[in-house]
Amino acid sequence: MKDIQKALDLDYEYAVLGDEYLPSRFAVTDLATASFGAVGCALAQLVETMGFAKCPAVTVDRRLASLWYGFSIHPIDWQLPPVWDAIAGIYQTKDGWIRLHTNLPHHRAAALSVIGTKAERPDVAKVIASWDKEKLETEIVAAGGVAAAMRTADEWARHPQGMAVAREPLIAWGETRQSAPKQWQPTRERPLAGLKVLDLTRVLAGPVATRTLAGFGADVLRIDPPGWDEAIVVPEITLGKRCARLDLTLDTDRTVFENLLADADVLVHGYRPDALENLGYGETRRQSIAPDLIEVCLDAYGWTGPWRGRRGFDSLVQMSCGIADAGMKWANADKPTPLPVQALDFGTGYLMAAAVLRALDNMLAGKGTRNAKLSLARTAELLKGHPQYRPEAAVMKTGSTDFADEAEQTPWGKANRLRPAVVIEGTLMYWDSPASELGAVRARWV
Questions:
Q1: What CA–CA distance (Å, rounded) separates 437 from 283?
Q2: Sequence-ordered list of residues with C-beta below 8 angstroms from that of 194, at least 6 positions apart, any chain
Q3: Degrees (nearest 5) of the Cα angle 338, 212, 54?
Q4: Which of 23, 49, 301, 308 reaches 20 to 30 Å from 446, CA-CA?
Q5: What distance in Å separates the CA atoms of residue 401 and residue 127, rounded to the nearest whole number?
Q6: Read out DSSP for 98-148?
Q7: In terms of Cα–Cα distance, which of 97, 100, 92 is closest to 129?
Q8: Phi, psi at residue 392, to the nearest 5°?
């Protein structure tokens, strides 16, 4: 996928191991391989710019890359929470299909307030069957919930938001500005050691980006508000991070946050446009606190167009943009068929990590500092441009050789964790700490 290298201004080759691929209408395994390749090449280029090595070799394992697009953690004698809420999922409407995303309690309450029934799947399905899909989508979104009607690729291409996303770059780089060189403690083996990364992300792409940076030594501090939980994915995405809580409605916690921001090297966030502004931390304010900060952020439906502020998740974007419809036709199925993994989340997450690495490289090379914006919807356009023509592949199953040699000791019990999918010559990808619960530490840099 040459678009990825072009978006990152990378001219760096990597080797690929294996020929397995996930069954899908679209080339999901190619995206997984290319996104890990982008991370590896960006890190190798950074290592070279630092003067540690000349052209370190980069290798990506297609099988492991595909598996990392699912769950990388495999519990031993305990279980992960269910992936989906009981009423989340696909429903048939009077004129098509709609997907509800109700994993978060307030999104569930919003959807039920519109549907007007108790939280039992048969009851929800019966009521939804009498709705027009776009009317229901509009009303749930207006109520503060998240839902997506299924559209074809052609319908999305004619939709105002689809047209807006198509005009956006895969990675939207901000203007170059001069900044003071950042000071961390890189080594050939751990190029990001000592780099302070402030993580203001939620399920799932943003946490993947910061987890990746932690794998190369970055000090990632995740901040959540009191009471926030993502139990379904916390064991998956807190690997290598320290997780703290702050209440930004309190002056004392705002002071702590501003001090953290001032000392951070990188800020990664997944807030919708204007969300930080509403908290009093708009772009101008952030730059006044931390003028040399590198920012990489994402949203669901793009940064322009009428839906730029709409809440969204991978599964919903797949419904909106035509992926689920194309999958249904490819599989000869009688209902929407999503991708075999949350490829938009993971693909965007790894591209975000690569964007951070490229920004650091440019800064060290004296080319100034740039921020970057990405979106799930724009990653979807990239994937839609790469249909998969080969016959259906076998579903990949993990084996003992896919896991790291030692089990990970988590707060929930021991677990196996996948081996890294990318290997950079002379550089080690591993995590200094296991997955942790949210709010487990104080909000401070090490």
A1: 30
A2: 184, 185, 186, 217, 219
A3: 120
A4: 49
A5: 48
A6: EEE---SHHHHHHHHHHHTS-S-HHHHHHHHTTS-HHHHHHHHHHTT--EE
A7: 92
A8: -60, 135
How do strand 372-375 and strand 294-299 relate by DSSP bridges? parallel
3-state SS string over 377-400? HHHHHHHHCCECCCCCCCCCCCCH
Tokens 């991978």 belong to 314
Tokens of 433: 């700490």
Q: Determine the residue type at 188.
A: R
Cα dist from 186 to 182, 224, 337, whole Å = 11, 28, 44
Q: Retrieve residue 168's tokens.
A: 């956006």
Tokens at 363, concatenated: 């800064």
- Angle, CA 293 vertex, CA 295 and CA 221 arms, to 5°: 75
Under DSSP, the state recorded for 69 is: T
The CA distance from 262 to 159, in Å, is 41
147 membership: H or E segment, kind and range: strand 147-149
What single DSSP character describes residue 213? H
Pairing of strands 413-417, 73-75: antiparallel
Q: Give the number of residues written for the chain.
A: 446
Stated pTM of the model: 0.97
In angstroms and rounded to an integer, the radius of gyration of the C-alpha atoms of the chain is 21
The SS3 assignment for 158 reads helix
Helix, strand, coil percent content, the chain, rounded in steps of 5 = 35, 15, 45
Using CA atoms, how far apart are residues 408 and 431, in angstroms rounded to an integer?
10
The tens-digit pLDDT sequence of the chain (446 residues) is: 899 999 999 999 999 999 999 999 999 999 999 999 999 999 999 999 999 999 999 999 999 999 999 999 999 999 998 889 999 999 999 999 999 999 999 999 999 999 999 999 999 999 999 999 999 999 999 999 999 999 999 999 999 999 999 999 999 999 999 888 788 999 999 999 999 999 999 989 999 999 999 999 999 999 999 999 988 899 999 999 999 999 999 999 999 999 999 999 999 999 887 889 999 999 999 999 999 999 999 999 999 999 999 999 999 999 999 999 999 999 999 999 999 999 999 999 999 999 999 999 999 999 999 999 999 999 999 999 999 987 777 778 899 999 999 999 999 999 999 999 999 999 999 999 999 999 999 999 98
